[in-house]
Write a structure and sequence with these properties.
453 residues; alpha/beta; 7-stranded mixed β-sheet; 6-stranded mixed β-sheet; 15 helices; 13 strands; 19% strand; flat; binds guanosine-5'-diphosphate
Length: 453
């Protein structure tokens, strides 16, 4: 436990009805007593945990504001230390003044993520739950929130512990076997041992298989809307964003550059770029836009390729189809409110959605198709889904270790060699949940948090 008592503003700096300043550490109550004066004369340091007092914040004789102070006693607090949370009116200047006063009276300014880091170091939370806090705060869709909440409720940690259980049991069998080295491999109950390792492998594979879909739900997906001029790309973008955002005109080639916008379709945040149409052009400015559209196709995680159903295919259509083949694509056949002259057979192998962007028809179909192509349709956001690259990296290393252990076993290697692989896998899982993790890794994780968390 750190001997420094820390303080920070825990709510955003803006204009709000209340703002909260959090103090945590051995001297939290003593420091709060110097700045907070309850109207009933009680000292905060005399209050039991989970008690609140109403009073005022005073710097000498100067009253800064009315305040409510809430007391938490160690270890029953967020950080596991004594904590005081002081609520005052939520003004930027006021909150800064109160914080400055608290720092003047002996608290240190909290570093980014220091409250949650202390919660982790004091055993209040494992790393998967601590890391979910950022997601709870920054979620931009219900699905993102549900993923973070599942991790916060301990689902990821529990799943990893289950896998650890299999590996620890495997380790124990190896240890028992090593005590009787003269016995042959049957003395180990080979089948049971292999089953434990295979269970661990299957669970790790399953967790890793949902990672990409989870990442798309959390972070969104770079999406390019591509197609020839006038097929309805801007109109489609407006349908998705529900606003007149892109320039829509009757003249082909109006969208000359990439327009970026973020929209939420179903559960997925799309970072949309409405590109210039891909077609041959002598116009210099337009051709720059065409080149950028081609680049965007290369880097996008999802491509919405729009075609006008009222016109038969031409050379530009075939060029586009060749450019998008093999990528994550939805072919959108637009203007279906008019009569169709397009031969749909050229889109064989692609996911196709028919829309009339102008009439707003096809939104639901498109939303379902996006979830299907992005791989999020079958993901249960309330299940144990790894939350970030760090966790994924640990799970990959654990899976490597388990695979190596299984191979070593099947190749007839010594049990010591198998044991080394199992230990590698376990070390990776302990790092994932934080049971055994270096200070450098811990510092790196919490550095990404904001001050006050
Ligand atoms: P872009 O160049 O691909 O961005 O195409 P625009 O979105 O600017 O649309 C070109 C023209 O097609 C405009 O007159 C739109 O109103 C019209 N348009 C777009 N979508 C539809 C549709 O679904 N049905 C019909 N009838 N017209 C559409």
């Amino acid at each position: 436990m750190s001997d420094r008592t820390i303080a920070a503003i825990a709510t955003p700096l803006g204009e709000s009805s209340i703002g909260v300043i959090r103090i945590s550490g051995e001297s939290a109550l003593g420091i709060a007593d110097k700045v907070f004066f309850a109207f009933n004369g009680e000292m905060l340091s005399d209050l039991a945990g989970y008690r609140a007092a109403y009073g005022e914040i005073k710097d000498g004789e100067r009253v800064l504001d009315d305040a409510v102070a809430l007391v938490f006693r160690a270890p029953k607090s967020y950080t596991g230390e004594d904590v005081v949370e002081i609520s005052v009116h939520g003004g930027r200047i006021l909150l800064r003044e109160v914080l400055r006063l608290i720092l003047k009276n002996g608290a240190f300014s909290a570093e980014a993520g220091e409250f949650t880091k202390r919660a982790f170091l004091n055993g209040k939370t494992d790393l998967t739950r601590a890391e979910s806090v950022m997601g709870l705060i920054s979620a931009k869709s219900e699905a993102q929130l549900r993923l973070s909440r599942a991790a916060h409720m301990g689902k990821v940690g529990e799943k990893i512990e289950e896998i650890e259980g299999d590996l620890v049991a495997a380790d124990a069998s190896i240890a028992a076997f090593s005590d009787y080295p003269d016995e042959d491999i049957e003395g180990l109950d080979y089948e049971n041992f292999l089953t434990m390792l295979e269970n661990a492998r299957n669970s790790l594979k399953k967790m890793l298989s949902t990672y990409d879909a989870g990442r798309i739900l959390r972070e969104g997906i770079d999406t390019a809307i591509v197609g020839k001029p006038n097929v309805g790309k801007s109109t489609l973008m407006n349908m998705l964003s529900g606003a007149e955002r892109s320039i829509v005109t009757e003249v082909a080639g109006t969208t000359r550059d990439i327009i970026e916008e973020t929209v939420t379709v179903g559960d997925i945040v799309l970072r949309l770029a409405d590109t210039a149409g891909i077609h041959d052009t002598d116009d210099t400015v337009e051709s720059i836009g065409v080149d950028r559209a081609k680049q965007r196709i290369e880097t996008a995680g999802l491509i919405l390729a729009v075609f006008d159903c009222t016109k038969p295919h031409d050379k530009d259509d075939y060029t586009l189809i060749e450019n998008i083949r093999g990528k994550k694509v939805i072919v959108i056949i637009n203007k279906t409110d008019l009569s169709c002259k397009l031969d749909k057979s050229v889109f064989e192998g692609f996911k196709i959605v028919e829309t009339s962007a102008k009439k707003g028809d096809g939104y639901e179909r498109l939303s379902d198709a996006i979830a299907e192509v992005a791989g999020t349709a079958d993901l249960d956001p309330d299940s144990a889904v790894l939350l970030n690259e760090r966790q994924r990296d640990c799970a990959v290393r654990a899976l490597d270790g388990v695979n190596e252990a299984i191979n070593a076993l099947k190749c007839g290697c010594t049990m010591d060699a198998v044991g080394v692989c199992v230990d590698d896998a376990l070390a990776a899982l302990f790092e994932l949940t934080g049971k055994r993790v270096t200070n450098e890794v811990t510092d790196e994780i919490f550095r990404r948090f904001c001050v006050g968390k």
